[in-house]
Specification:
The chain is an alpha+beta fold. The chain is about 25% helix and about 35% strand. The protein contains 4 helices and 7 strands.
């Protein structure tokens, strides 16, 4: 498995099916949660009400919205694929497996499933399975991403 390198700016040909890359790690803070729910308008008590979450919630504390985790994971994927990504094409089989809590440290394991040229010269498509893992080794989120990326001319 290759580790994340922020200076590496790959193109399609740098990725092969079966390749596995680990992203950087990032700790989710209360500021992250507050900013995200403020921006998105998510107002579920499990996210915003400490007393409710501790006394009535199923986890004994506030949790982060799954889409906050998905956003962090998307940033980690982008850092691996680099600045040559042209567009995100989709996220399939998105599964929120384990709740993310304030103070959890996440990283992503990215497994390239497909890397191929498209009909348009200079472009390719990558499909990758992303497993977002917390500091306890638990999967928080997993999904299959498809992205359009620059390719070296053939």
């Amino acid at each position: 498995m290759k580790d994340w390198d922020p200076e590496y700016q790959p193109v399609l040909q740098n990725f092969q099916p079966g390749q596995v890359i680990r992203s950087y790690s990032r700790t989710v803070t209360e500021s992250d949660l507050v900013a995200f729910i403020g921006f998105t308008g998510m107002r579920m008590p499990i996210f915003i009400d400490r007393e409710y979450a501790e006394k009535q919630g199923p986890y004994g504390e506030r949790i982060c919205p799954g889409f906050l985790t998905a956003s962090v994971a998307a940033g980690m994927l982008e850092s691996i694929l680099g600045r040559n990504v042209i567009a995100g094409l989709g996220m399939d089989t998105l599964r929120f497996v384990t709740p993310v809590k304030i103070g959890d440290t996440l990283h992503a394991i990215v497994e390239i499933r497909e890397a191929r040229l498209t009909r348009e010269p200079g472009r390719g498509m990558i499909r990758a399975f992303i497993n977002t893992i917390n500091q306890r080794g638990e999967t928080a989120l997993e999904f299959l991403a498809s992205v359009l990326i620059k390719a070296d001319p053939a």
